[in-house]
Design brief:
alpha+beta; Archease, Possible Chaperone, Chain: A, domain 1; 3-stranded antiparallel sheet; two-stranded antiparallel sheet; 2 helices
Length: 104
């Protein structure tokens, strides 16, 4: 999501945050976690570039997000305003894959 908005080439993450989201389904967990990242990004003027899932249960996703102040990265795309459920798809064969559409 942030890679669509910012050019992170040559940057190093300076800030690390724990981000948690709750939800009744995998789809709701994903939308809520991405929405929380977007909210924190806008509130704290941070652009996140590295992510690590720490814990995933049936109703909670906990992860680490690393980033840097927005003033240190160049905007390369249209800012994302919201995460949507429109055509949201999550699949799991050998690896997890998701399709997410964002409002810009």
């Amino acid at each position: 999501m942030f890679g669509l908005m910012y050019d992170f080439e040559g940057t190093t993450a300076e800030v690390t945050l724990q981000v948690t989201a709750d939800g009744a389904t995998r789809e709701e967990l994903l939308v809520n976690w991405l929405s929380e990242l977007l909210y924190i990004s806008e509130r704290d003027d941070l652009a996140f570039c590295e992510f690590e899932m720490i814990n995933l249960s049936d109703d909670r996703l906990e992860g680490t997000a690393r980033g840097l102040p927005m003033v240190e990265v160049e905007l390369k795309g249209t800012p994302i305003k919201a995460v949507t459920y429109h055509q949201l798809r999550i699949s799991h064969d050998r690896d997890w894959e998701a399709t997410v559409i964002f409002d810009v």
